[in-house]
Every structure is written in structure tokens, then in C-alpha cells.
Amino acid sequence: MINQTMTRLRALRLSGMADALLLQGEQPGTYEGLSFEERLALLVDQEDADRNNKRLARLLRAARFKLAATLEDIDYEQPRGITKSKMATLVTCEWLRRKQNLLLTGPCGTGKSWLSCAFGHGACLRGYSVRYFRTSRLLEAMTIAHGDGSYTKELRQLAKVDLLILDDWGLESLSQSHRNDLLEIMDDRHNRSSTIVTSQLPVSKWHDSIGDATLADAILDRLTHNAHRIELKGESMRKTKAKLADREH
């Protein structure tokens, strides 16, 4: 009968409960003092934990992060202009619930991409869907979508993502088509979902980097008016790590 129950649980996609039941059968002495209700509660707890773990793994795969980073591992010792007190409200990801944006700016190597991935990981832990892109590659993908007829589908998919990460904003000049694509993306997401943008350029120079005053006004109005800003400072952390490695050698 236990084997039949196990088979039916797996057929019902209750694999966590099935594994917990198998464990109870293999270790009868551990559970013999528990009531039926207590043992049932353990089965339900295991099923819930199993589903949460699978959901997290699914969200992390879909995000396609460039770097493995977590909010718990943020280095506050480096003099980059960030402190625990400044980050206290951001690491709770309350801004995600409020559909607000986050802008990370600073020199090359100060950890913008790493921080964006850490915030993305934190969002996944809270059940939000996330997608990471280098800005140039997203715009390239949109150009291809124009050609193969999948443009509308791509826009719908981007609009559904709870947190969109655009890394390395402003490194390359934009074509008219790219500007239009950015406006479509930002318009779909405005007040409906959140976006993280990282850039070596200060926000004050984004308008000029877009290259068209009218479209720049429209894009930045949707992106920056409800955004939190982190301005990173200091020397490249890559150089710092290289110096440490040299001393070790």
C-alpha cells in the first residue's frame, strides 16, 4: 500500500511529500512517537519546501545572471560610497513591491554589475521573476526580432518580467531603432514593474548619450522619476584584487 501511495503522490506531482514519506518509512524509530497529525504536518512542510526550492531554481535559471552574487555578500569594507545604513531599505526589496527602479552608476570595476546581480538574486528569493541583459545585447536581440516577426512577442515577455536588469547602459551609440525599442520597453514597464540600470556614465549624461532629445525625454521620464540611485566611487575592485594577488605571489 505504501508503494502505491508513493506512486500516486509522484503522479500528483507531490514529490516532496513522497520523499518525506519514504524517509519516515526508512526511519520508523524517529517518528514513532509522533501523532498522525504531526507526521502529516511534516509531509506537508517537506512538500512546501520542495516546491519553493524548485521555484527558486527555476527563477535563477531564467534570470541568466552574469555573476553569482547575493545581497548577504556585499562588501562594505571597500570605500565605494555604500554603507549598510544606505543600503538598509534597498536590500529588503521593498522598492520592487512598489514598482520602483534602481540606477547604479560609477567608474569601471566598482561593482555595478555584481550589485545588480545581487539585487536580482534577492528578488528571486522573494519570488519575483528576473531577467539580466547587457544593454547592447538586448537591443541586438530586438533588432533581430524586428526582422523575424517576433518583436511583439519579445516586448510582451519583457513586460511580464518583474525585474529587468540592463547592464552597461550608454557604452555604445544608439540607432533610431534602438531608441524606439527602449521607449517601448520602458513604457510597457512604467509603474508596472521594476528595472535596474547600471552605467559608467552619471545619470546627468544619459540624456545626451541617447542622442535624440525628444525620445531621451520620454525614456528617462519613465526610467528615472521613481528611481533610487546608488553612485559608486573609488578604484576598480579588479585592480585591488590584482594588487592583492601580486603581493601573495
Compact description:
The chain is of the alpha/beta class. Helix content is 57%, strand content 10%. The relative contact order is 0.13.
Descriptive account of the structure:
This protein has 249 residues and is α/β, with parallel strands linked by helices. The protein has 13 helices and five strands. It has a five-stranded parallel sheet with strand order 2-3-4-1-5. Strand 3, helix 10 and strand 4 form a beta-alpha-beta unit. Helix 4 runs antiparallel to helix 7 and helix 9 packs across helix 10. The longest helix has 28 residues. The protein is elongated. The mean pLDDT is 90.
Helix content: 55-70%
User: What gyration radius follows from the Cα positions, in whole Å?
Assistant: 23 Å
Mean pLDDT, all residues: 90
Sequence of secondary-structure elements? HHHHHHEHEHHEHEHHEH
How far apart, in Å, are the first and last alpha carbons?
64 Å
Beta strands, count: 5
Q: What is the approximate shape? A: elongated
Please outline the major beta sheet. 5 strands, parallel
Throw out a few tags for this protein.
10% strand; single chain; 249 residues; alpha/beta
How are the SSEs placed, and which strands pair?
Blueprint: H1 2-11, H2 15-26, H3 28-31, H4 36-63, H5 84-87, H6 94-97, E1 101-105, H7 112-125, E2 130-134, H8 135-148, H9 151-160, E3 163-167, H10 176-189, E4 194-199, H11 206-210, H12 213-224, E5 227-231, H13 237-248
Parallel strand pairs: 1-4, 1-5, 2-3, 3-4
Helix pairs in contact: 1-2, 2-4, 4-7, 8-10, 9-10, 10-12
